[in-house]
Design a protein that fits this description.
- The chain has 400 residues and is an alpha+beta fold.
- It has four domains: 4-19 and 173-318, 3-Layer(aba) Sandwich (Molybdenum Cofactor Biosythetic Enzyme, Chain A); 21-44 and 137-171, Molybdopterin biosynthesis moea protein, domain 2, CATH 3.90.105.10; 49-133, Beta Complex (Molybdopterin biosynthesis moeA protein, domain 3); 328-399, MoeA, C-terminal, domain IV (Beta-clip, Beta Barrel), CATH 2.40.340.10.
- 19% of the residues lie in helices and 29% in strands.
- The protein contains seven helices and 26 strands.
- A six-stranded mixed beta sheet has the order 17-14-18-21-20-19, with helices on both faces.
- The longest helix has 19 residues, at 299-317.
- The chain binds adenosine monophosphate and magnesium ion (MG).
- Adenosine monophosphate (AMP) binds at residues 180, 182, 184-185, 199, 201-204, 248-252, 296-299.
Length: 400
């Protein structure tokens, strides 16, 4: 059996980067992977501007108080300011450009306006630069603001807009085909009534949703019975259009598990037993140009192996650098008296009182995952008492 880290290393070394790009508007770019470095051609802000509504002054005019001045002009946001005459101040609003001969803004709360003379008295002294947002303080011309391989967040899209970028080059979406297997499974879209002996297929829609979250294009989502011929046929069909084929179930060693045999017939197979609970067996391979990943069928095993193994493969195909998933070391609020023979990811919630575990950790219990907001890692041969620290992996961070 190989370790989780060994499995990820092997997977990454077997997976190429697709290196296919397209140019899209930034308004459609959420979650997409940048295929270029973005270098700013402007300063942001482009000029010094006011951080406050108030009065813009020359601090060299401030000698001994009282500091009472006539108002020589009004500068709204968006206007082009002119230098102000010596011994005067100007009314200014937030976001308006600072006149070239001024160096500070006094907020209006610290000013008193005489209604008769319309002169303004500054109640507090200010220092040069106060309440001014300096030219280029956010972004300087020539700065690389976002790098190739980065996934675009809503904030990044705002940042791109702030330097006037309307379109970006991004990696093309990875095209994925999903195939679930099993004679016992039916889809509720085919029949709401559950016939005897059957269960509803939960993993097909779950994997579809996981792939959408990982910003892939699901090009087909198929279910097939436990049948060698259908398996070989479907794998071959999918390999003509998919970059990645993910199957679910039928990957262990029972007489009804056909995925490995089928893969050997139509492609290349690597089969690994990974030292991991849940989700020991995974099948890796290639069919024509498509990468193949065979996940175990138990819903929790499918989910966990998708997170641990499919996501790194997808990121590599997308041309992103590999980053180990981030975790926090947090105290558990439960005990574990019987040590495990394999490292285990358990379904947990992060609470103010520490890490709480779902009471039933069986790999068939999908509710444990729906309830959880994180997976906690329990190394093999570990006993735990309440308060002891455990590595906790928030689910959302796997998708970074
Ligand atoms: P397998 O890996 O095919 O041996 O399946 C292991 C367990 O997971 C069995 O109890 C299956 O019924 C169940 N299972 C497999 N595929 C799915 C699926 N798509 N949805 C729900 N349960 C599944
Ligand atoms: Mg099966």
């Amino acid at each position: 059996m190989i370790s989780i880290e060994q499995a990820v290393d092997k997977l990454l070394s077997l997976t190429p980067s697709l290196d296919q790009h397209e140019q899209i508007p930034i308004t459609s770019a959420l979650g997409r992977i940048l295929a270029e470095n973005i270098i700013s051609t402007i300063d942001v802000p482009p000029q010094n501007n006011s951080a406050m509504d108030g009065y813009v002054i020359r601090t060299s005019d401030l000698e001994n108080p009282p500091w009472t001045f006539p108002v020589s002009s009004v500068i709204p946001a968006g206007a082009i300011p002119h230098a102000i005459p010596a011994g005067s101040i100007a009314r200014i609003f937030t976001g308006a450009e600072i006149p070239e001969n001024c160096d500070a803004v006094v907020m209006q709360e610290n000013c008193e306006v005489d209604p008769n003379s319309e002169k303004v008295t500054l109640l507090k002294p200010v220092t040069p630069g106060e309440n001014i947002r300096a030219k280029g303080q956010d972004i300087a011309k020539g700065d690389t603001i976002l790098g190739k391989g980065q996934q675009l967040s809503p904030q990044d899209i705002g940042l791109l807009a702030s330097i006037g970028v309307t379109h970006v080059h991004v990696a093309q979406k990875v095209r994925v085909a999903i195939i679930t297997t099993g004679d016992e499974l039916i889809s509720a879209t085919d029949s709401h009534l559950l016939p005897p002996g059957k269960i509803f297929n939960s993993n097909l829609p779950m994997l579809q949703a996981l792939l959408e979250k990982a910003n892939c294009e699901v090009i087909s989502a198929l279910h097939i019975p436990d049948n060698l011929q259908q398996t070989t046929h479907t794998l071959t069909e999918c390999s003509h259009t998919a970059d990645l084929i993910i199957s679910c179930g039928g990957v262990s060693v029972g007489e009804k598990d056909f995925v490995k045999d089928a893969l050997e017939q139509v492609g290349e197979l690597d089969f690994w037993k990974v030292k991991l609970k849940p989700g020991k067996p995974i099948a890796i391979g290639k069919i024509n140009q498509a990468r193949f990943l065979g996940l175990p069928g138990n819903p929790v095993s499918s989910f966990v192996t998708f997170i641990l193994f499919a996501l790194p493969v997808i990121k590599k195909l997308q041309g992103r650098p590999y980053k180990a998933p981030r975790y926090f070391t947090l105290p558990c609020n439960f005990s574990l008296s019987s040590p495990r023979t394999r490292p285990e990811f358990i379904r947990v919630q992060m609470t103010e009182n520490g890490i709480e575990q779902f009471p039933n950790q069986s790999s068939g219990v999908l509710r444990s995952l729906s309830w959880a907001d994180a997976l906690a890692f329990i190394p093999e041969e570990t006993r735990l008492s309440p308060g002891e620290p455990i590595k906790t992996y928030p689910l959302s961070l796997f998708f970074e």
